[in-house]
Design a protein that fits this description.
Elements (H helix, E strand, L loop, with lengths): L2 H13 L6 H11 L4 H13 L3 H13 L5 H13 L3 H8 L9 H10 L3 H11 L4 H13 L3 H15 L3 H13 L3 H14 L4 H13 L3 H14 L4 H13 L3 H14 L4 H14 L1
Helix pairs in contact: 1-2, 1-3, 2-3, 3-4, 5-6, 6-7, 7-8, 7-9, 8-9, 9-10, 9-11, 10-11, 11-12, 11-13, 12-13, 13-14, 13-15, 14-15, 15-16, 15-17, 16-17
């Protein structure tokens, strides 16, 4: 079987809203893939999109029960499991290695998702991590612990060290929203759009702020402007997906999560979208 061609047919069926045709095709692929983990994850992801959750989880259960012997390969599986929402399995695998030492950020992120916030922070502190994504994760951890002053301090440092890109800016904006400073967050986002009305990161930041503030049409407008110029902009894709979720368009939102995961495997934005779909569709 040409699995890539089969996956393309399934994706086209989803676009054409032929959802009932997805499960039989996926089952055929699973039956012929000889346990290929990458193929199994693709199948599970497609089933999650069309909300065939039972068989999706059955596939993932099989992956967890038949982990590779090599610990480095198990790490790759753990990251993929986290990306599809199996947080506990991801954490359990990463903390079970006998010789392999997992990347501190990846381990801390999986630890964060199982709500072991102090442990996640300790992992990053011990590794002395000060790269951008680790500092953003530290900001999220401190917010989860209710220490918004420390979170803001790290958010400001992240902008100082790594510049005014979407990830660093939305990180600070997020701290403001989570600490109840909604007006400050909106003002912060607007200040960057005033600085440049053509900067995609600034427009995506404004889209995020509008969405969090409940102004969905404005959020969609700003995100659409970004995506017309850069269809891979993860921040704009996430905002569009979250707006679709608010409108109960879960399948289209999950398709955007898939696009994010294709562009940047394991990106937390895809996890947030899938998590929001799960919470609001239940």
């Amino acid at each position: 079987m040409d699995t890539e061609a089969a996956f393309e047919r399934i994706k086209n069926d989803i676009k054409d809203e032929k959802y009932d045709m997805v499960l039989p095709q996926v089952k055929e692929i699973v039956g012929q893939c000889n346990g290929d983990i990458s193929i199994l994850f693709k199948c599970a992801s497609l089933l999650k999109v069309v909300e065939k959750e039972d068989y999706c989880q059955e596939i993932l259960d099989g992956v967890v029960k038949n982990l590779p012997a090599e610990e480095e390969q198990r790490m790759e599986v753990a990251i993929a499991l986290r990306g599809i929402g199996r947080f506990k399995d991801s954490y359990d695998i990463m903390t079970s290695f006998e010789t392999y030492v997992p990347d501190a950020y990846e381990l801390a992120l999986s630890t964060y998702y199982v709500e072991k916030y102090e442990e996640a922070l300790s992992i990053l502190d011990k590794a002395d991590r000060d790269d951008q994504k680790s500092m953003i994760l530290m900001t999220d951890i401190h917010c989860a612990l209710g220490d918004y002053d420390k979170a803001m301090e790290i958010a400001d440092k992240t902008i100082y060290y790594y510049g005014s890109g979407y990830d660093t800016l939305v990180n600070k904006c997020n701290v403001m929203f989570r600490s109840g400073k909604t007006k400050d967050a909106i003002k912060f986002a607007k200040s960057y759009v005033k600085e440049s009305k053509s900067n995609n990161d600034f427009l995506a930041l404004e889209a995020y702020a509008m969405r969090i503030n409940g102004r969905l049409p404005a959020a969609v407008n700003y995100a659409s402007r970004v995506l017309k110029d850069d269809h891979t902009h993860i921040g704009a894709l996430e905002t569009m997906a979250m707006c679709l979720i608010e409108k109960k368009s879960f399948i289209n939102a999950k398709l955007l999560a898939g696009a994010i995961n294709d562009a940047d495997p394991g990106n937390p934005a895809a996890v947030r979208i899938l998590d929001a779909c799960r919470l609001l569709s239940s």
